[in-house]
């Protein structure tokens, strides 16, 4: 039986197929790979599937979601930062993700793209009792 690829090998294979190394973007480093794993785990818990995984123009990994006119990306960059961009015809929002609260950002993306509810990742829903 052959060696099973580990997660890093699999992500690197995806990166090569996505066009890294063709002067499009810098190859993802270990920091962006580790942050991507954390994002993907939070997505698995939320049962959120990306539309595609691509090279981030800033260097790293871009996890993208798209439905109708709504688009979002979670970019895990080589410098260790993780950014979310959400946009449609009326809205454009960008924020830096606190990796201790990555689940909240994943939920915000899921709500925006698939439920059309727009709420900042740090904003909690209002208590209807108040």
List keywords for this structure.
130 residues; alpha+beta; 3 helices; globular; disordered N terminus
Description:
This protein has 130 residues and is of the alpha+beta class. The chain contains three helices and five strands; from the N terminus they run ααβββββα. It has a domain at 26-115. 32% of the residues lie in helices and 24% in strands. A five-stranded antiparallel beta sheet has the order 1-2-3-4-5.
Question: What does the secondary structure layout of this molecule look like, with pairings?
Answer:
Layout: H1 7-17, H2 30-46, E1 52-55, E2 60-67, E3 70-77, E4 82-87, E5 92-96, H3 102-115
Antiparallel strand pairs: 1-2, 2-3, 3-4, 4-5
Helix pairs in contact: 1-2, 2-3
Rg is 16 Å
Summarize the amount of helix as a percent range. Answer: 25-40%
Q: What is the molecular shape?
A: globular
Reading the helices and strands in chain order gives HHEEEEEH
Low-confidence stretches: 1-5, 117-121, 123-130
Total DSSP helices? 3
User: Would you tell me the structural class of the helices and strands?
Assistant: alpha+beta
Strand content: 15-25%
- Within the largest sheet, what's the order of strands? 1-2-3-4-5
Mean pLDDT: 81
End-to-end CA span: 61 Å
Number of strands: 5
Structure in a nutshell:
This protein is of the alpha+beta class.
């Amino acid at each position: 039986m052959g060696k099973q690829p580990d997660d890093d090998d699999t992500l690197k294979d995806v990166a090569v197929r996505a066009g890294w190394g063709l002067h499009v973007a810098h190859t993802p480093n270990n920091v962006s790979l580790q942050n991507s794993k954390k994002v993907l785990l939070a997505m698995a818990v939320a049962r959120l599937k990306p539309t595609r995984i691509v090279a981030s123009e800033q260097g790293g990994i871009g996890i993208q979601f798209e439905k109708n006119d709504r688009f979002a990306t979670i970019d895990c960059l080589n410098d260790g930062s993780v950014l979310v961009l959400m946009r449609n015809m009326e809205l454009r929002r960008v924020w830096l993700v606190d990796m201790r609260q990555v689940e909240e950002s994943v939920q915000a993306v899921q709500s925006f793209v698939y439920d059309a509810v727009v709420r900042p990742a740090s904003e909690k829903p209002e208590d209807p009792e108040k």
